[in-house]
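Quick note —
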Amino acid sequence: MPNLSPLVAGTWRLHEQGWSAAERLRWIERCTDLGVTSFDHADLYGGYTVEALFGEALALRPALRERLQLVSKCGIRLPGHARGAARIKHYDSSAAHIRASVEHSLRALRTDRLDLLLLHRPDPLLDAAEVADAVAALQREGKILAFGVSNFGPQAFELLDAATPLVTNQIELHPLRREPLHDGTLDALQRRGRRPMVWSPLAGGRLLAGDESPAAQRVRWVLGALGAQLGVAPATVAYAWLLRHPTHPRPVVGTMREAGLQQALAALSLRLDAEAWTEIWQAGAGQEVA
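Predicted structure written out below.
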């Protein structure tokens, strides 16, 4: 596994911020100064625009690249874009597509390497041997340093890991989506000693506001009560809930202002006990543990 930071800065909504290149650079620098040196991309973010926005900012201070770890994902093709000319949205794990995506990401990010490449979604047509050969060639050329997957279940992970070592699985996990805790996904990672990455750790913000479903309201109340008891923000408790798992997940923190980033960072020094962790689990599940 590349030496990623404990928290990873997500770039999915970078194009929505309306920032100039200089403002984007200031965001990258501030994250880095706070110890968040890893940045999570995907080729298709922002309709294939976000990597170029990041690269434009990084070009204002090229030396900063040596302090960063750049992660990107590939394997989904979108229609309506000149790149790839897909007729419908579909998965593509072919060697040709993986290579084309990596070459595009390197140009857009203005870098000579990706520290970590992830296959974005499990492809029903995935040929594990073909993927392994493509990854090996890109690694020999120094264009990717490590390889992993995103959103893979335990069996799909095992299939590809047998063909080429996977250093991580980036999954969705939060108190409103607890399936990876119980479907073998995290068990498989713990057995192999692989640290997961976690996207949408706050359920897209629904843990804190906006979602009035009974489960979200229960979780929000418990996060607030525990936060008041521990003297931290509810978001900090939500991140600490993830970090408590023995696989030592790396949450992907959204493109946010510094206050939100500080709340995430505070979770690194907060360890929930089993009762507090279970209280949050129960709030999401709407029932006691059996």
